[in-house]
Amino acid sequence: MRPCELCAGEDLDLIHRQHFLFPGQVQPVHYDVVSCRACGFAFASDIPDQSVLNSFYQESEHHLHQEVPAGLSRIHDDFFAFVQRHVPLSESVRVLDIGSGMGHFLSRFKAAGLVDLLGIEPSPTAARLGMEVHGLEIRTETMDTLSATHPFDLVSLCGVLEHIADLKRSAGQLSELVEEGGHLFIAVPDGVSFGAVPPAEAFLEFALEHINFFSETSLDNLLRGAGFEKVDVISQHNDFYDNHYLLALYRKTGSRMETPSIDRVSASSLHRYVAFSQEKLACVEALARQLEDSGEPVVIWGAGSLTSRLLCDTRLAHVNLRAVIDRNKSLQGKSLLGVAISAPESVLQHAGATVFIASTTYADEIRRMLLDQYAWTGRIISLAPEGIVSR
Ligand SMILES: [Zn+2]
Questions:
Q1: Rounded to the nearest whole angstrom, what is the distance from the C-alpha of residue 28 to the centroid of ligand 1?
Q2: Where along the chain do the CATH 3.40.50.150 domains lie?
Q3: Which CATH class is domain 295-390?
Q4: CA dist 247 to 3, 52, 170, 231, Å?
Q5: Region 351-367: what's the mean pLDDT?
Q6: Ligand 1 centroid – CA 352 distance (Å)
Q7: 25-47: b (≥16 Cβ within 10 Å) or e
Q8: pTM of model > 0.85
Q9: How many angstroms does the Cα of residue 11 sit away from the middle of ligand 1?
């Protein structure tokens, strides 16, 4: 069990158990989405072993976009504008971006004329691309390995804190990396927004790599406990991921607040999110049963996060599966349910099969590819955001 990282509480309320079956795995793994009965922090407990997570991260390198999609670029613009509203960014301001990826966010500071910029990133490929594409210094390091000579004026983490298992220790490290009076910028999915409207994709937010579900209150508890005070926090929608992010700016004071405030909203938001997701899933389940009963040959297109959940949450694992397709080369050749994952063009070997598109973000793109590039005449089932499309 993973005790509450904010108050060390061990009295946890189970909200949902999420199962995943990934390529190359024989048995599904799972985690439990829980909330702490003492302080209300919501997080994933009973998380898979670090080795499972590591192999998962290696496969996620397909997230590296050399040419940034416009939607993703806009997110970084929004993040930067928020920071700029609060922090005077003179040329000499020293910035550290943690989990910088290819440096898409850090490059905004370079464009604004700042020169003392450093990114750290565990993926060597991303770090190398960041240097090539943006001319930034990005080191293949983590907070654990970084030895900074002196603290930074601004430290940023965009889409990082939701991944970190050892939050308290990380918050302490952050405090050491920020100069007294300096700033910390955090962007993290807003857990309270999960339950606000029905999601486009069931349980999308319970991705294996997302193990902390912050609210403004729980984030504040973490950061105040590490010697930071709030400057401003907003919740902002982003179109690319179709969710809300908390944008939080904190200043280091050095005085720690040990008693957490009670978060009274996270658990109820996540309970609503689970109910919404189960409703959404019911349609997919009906469809999977239909496919199972008909015995028609099925090609699953997409071996990623959605498939990993649907194979456990629905009868999809019991259909007459002929092929699994994925564009991600690091997945090709691995097997899922005993079927080797293959490249898109191999779909042509299964003429007449039903293609089940297991992606919401890229559903339209894949559908167009099937029709235009492969002149596909078989049935296509797509879990498009507006509802299941089948023909
Ligand atoms: Zn707690």
A1: 28
A2: 12-271
A3: alpha beta
A4: 26, 30, 18, 11
A5: 92
A6: 54
A7: beeebbbbbbbbebbbbbbbbeb
A8: yes
A9: 8
Contact 57, 122 (CB under 8 A): yes
Whole-number pLDDT of residue 174: 96
Question: Ligand 1 centre from 39 Cα, in Å?
Answer: 4
Please, which residues bridge with residue 158 across strands? 187
Distance CA 326, CA 61 (A): 14
**CB neighbour class for 145 (10 Å; exposed up to 12, middle 13-18, buried from 19):** exposed
CB 222 within 8 A of CB 6: yes
CA atoms of 328 and 310, how far apart (whole Å): 19
Look at residue 142 in the predicted model and tell me its pLDDT.
87
Three-state DSSP class for residue 213? strand
Which DSSP string corresponds to 10-73?
Answer: --EEEEEEEEE--TT-SS-EEEEEEEETTT--EEEESPPPHHHHHHHHHHGGGG--SS--HHHH
pLDDT digits (tens, 9 = 90+) for 64-78: 555 666 777 889 999
Closest CA to 149 of 177, 117, 110: 177
CATH C-level class of 12-271? alpha beta
The beta strand positions in 174-290, using DSSP E, are: 178-189, 212-213, 228-238, 243-252
Count CB neighbours of 136 within 10 A: 21
Residues, CB within 5 angstroms of ligand 1 (ion): 4, 6-7, 9, 36, 38-39, 41
Q: What's the chain's average pLDDT? A: 91
Q: Among 179, 278, 214, 210, which residue's Cα sits nearest to residue 42?
A: 214
- Rounded Cα distance, 111 and 99, in Å: 19
Helix (H) or strand (E) holding 125: helix 124-134
Contacts of 334 (CB under 8 A, 6+ apart): 23, 24, 303, 340, 341
CB 187 within 8 A of CB 159: yes
Residue 56 Cα to ligand 1 midpoint, Å, equals: 28
Residues of the chain with CATH 3.40.50.720: 295-390
Q: Tokens at residue 104, please?
A: 């898409």
One-letter amino acid for residue 109 of the chain: F
